[in-house]
């Protein structure tokens, strides 16, 4: 590890000039706005609920898979899943291939909740993309994907 010279002045640091700042700020603003819109529509749901249901809408997952997919620790995922189970949107079932493992999946009520949430999410996505071309949005997606890959490091198959 390189030794830093403590006498050298630090380079100027302007967070608002970095995409990281704006990604983080956008994420916080979207979660807040989405939760508010769900509540205004009479849905007892949060942005975190939406994100979890969205992952599970792709198919059943183990808690570990859900933790990996959501980039959340197992304790947080367990608490979130407990809440979704209480709402009747998610169920835990033993894995038919390995009964020691649980699989998490959407219930019919969870699928219905997802449909209601999609009706709220769609307009929000459209609003946030207003004035931004499809090409600009694709560039932003590509850059964020590469930044995440840089952070996560090389994958081993």
Task: Characterize the structure shown.
The chain has about 160 residues and is mainly alpha-helical. The chain has a domain at about 40-130: Winged helix-like DNA-binding domain superfamily/Winged helix DNA-binding domain (Arc Repressor Mutant, subunit A), CATH 1.10.10.10. It is built from six helices and two strands; from the N terminus they run ααααββαα. The protein has helices at about 20-40, 45-55, 65-70, 75-85, 110-130, 135-150, and strands at about 90-95, 100-105. A hairpin with a 7-residue loop joins strand 1 (about 90-95) and strand 2. The chain is globular and about 60 Å long. The mean pLDDT is about 90.
List keywords for this structure.
157 residues; mainly alpha; Arc Repressor Mutant, subunit A; two-stranded antiparallel sheet; 6 helices
Which secondary structure elements does this structure contain, and how are they paired or packed?
Blueprint (H helix, E strand, L loop, with lengths): L18 H22 L6 H10 L6 H8 L3 H13 L3 E5 L7 E5 L1 H21 L5 H19 L5
Helix pairs in contact: 3-4
